Amino acid sequence: MNIPKSAFSLSRDEYGGTGKRLFIGLVAGTALLLCALLLLIWLVPTIGFAAIHPWLPSIAGLIFGGAILAIVWLSLGLVLHAYTGKPVLGTSRLRGITIRLLLPLMELMGRAMRIPVPSVRRSFIKVNNELVLSDHPHCKPHELLVLLPHCIQSSRCTHRLTYHIDHCARCGACPIRDVLGLRDAYGVQVAIATGGTIARRIVVQARPKLIVAVACERDLSSGIQDTHPLPVFGVINERPNGPCLDTFVNIRRLEAAIRTFLGLEADDASGGKGATAPLTPVRGNRVACDARKASKLA
User: Fold this and answer.
1) 248 and 111 housed in the same domain
2) C-alpha separations of 159 from 155, 170, 195, 238, 248 in Å
3) Same domain flag for 256 and 184
4) Contact 249, 214 (CB under 8 A)
5) What's the rounded Cα separation, in Å, for the pair 202 and 152?
6) Residue environment code for 112-134, b if the CB has 16+ CB neighbours within 10 A, otherwise e
7) pLDDT per residue over 37-74, tens digit each?
8) Residues facing residue 232 across a β-bridge
9) Does residue 104 form part of some domain?
10) 255 and 276 in contact (C-beta within 8 Å)?
11) Are residues 111 and 184 in the same domain?
């Protein structure tokens, strides 16, 4: 049987060369280990159960068998959804629960196999982004929130931007000036969060339908899980000075994501729907034209 691959596959280059195969392999391996563990837990005390009541082994078998079938169903649905880009087996609504259950175990399994945890998280973020693209293609400018980490602000800056990002002097010492330029051009919401609590407050106040979040692999992985079912498209930041200090974001990738979810690239591209075409940013004289299109969508 030929299973079609997702039409929304993204380039590995944006995720440190990590592909979705790592995520799919770890999901399958983790699910098999969980099933084997449940089977072992059921088999060991079966003799003792029979001594208590003759029906107890059968009841325990039904319970553990149901748990094994549930794990297989959820894992297979997640793998097929990640590969094809289409929800299958009715598991799309339970994707958040499945990820919360399997991702920590996948990281442990990756450590045991000497796979760096950041690679596992990058693979998860890549798969998540492809699923977001397939499930939530377009929204209006005011419904899209660009959420930035506080470490993107220059450590030498004296302005406090957490609550009022417009206090930025736009000096160009950090990427915030360029991000605000995207906000002004496309009409999307932009905010800076210093942590998970502030991020949740911002989301409640902004009430977006979709979030484009910039952060490291750890924060993106946890944020994607915390906000589910609200879709989050993750853009991994660049950390030339180490973690949490004067980080950067690829403005072209960020703009490409904004354009994709606003449907601007789809209007201009002749190739119709696709994964890589909408996420290829176009700059120059077209920015003014795209800004006018975005204002019409608002």
Assistant:
1) no
2) 10, 11, 18, 22, 18
3) yes
4) yes
5) 17
6) eeebeebbbbbbbbbbbbbbbbb
7) 888 887 766 666 666 667 777 787 888 889 889 888 88
8) 211
9) yes
10) no
11) no
- The encoded tokens of residue 285 equal 């004289």
Q: Name which of 275, 237, 247, 204 is nearest 118 in CA terms.
A: 237
What secondary structure, in 3-state letters, does 104-156 show?
Answer: HHHHHHHHHCCCCHHHHHHHHHHHHHHHHHHHCCCCCHHHEEEEEEHHHCCCC
Last residue of a domain, one of 69, 96, 130: 130
> Strand 232-236's sheet: what is its strand order?
189-193, 144-149, 210-215, 232-236
Domain C-terminal end among 103, 130, 157? 130
Q: Where are the alpha helices (DSSP H) in the chain?
A: 20-43, 46-52, 56-84, 95-112, 117-135, 176-186, 196-206, 217-227, 251-262, 264-268, 286-297
Please write the tens of the pLDDT for every residue from 113-123. Answer: 999 999 999 99
Specify if 204 maps to a domain: yes
**pTM of the predicted protein model:** 0.76
Q: For residues 122 and 221, is the Cβ–Cβ distance under 8 A?
A: no
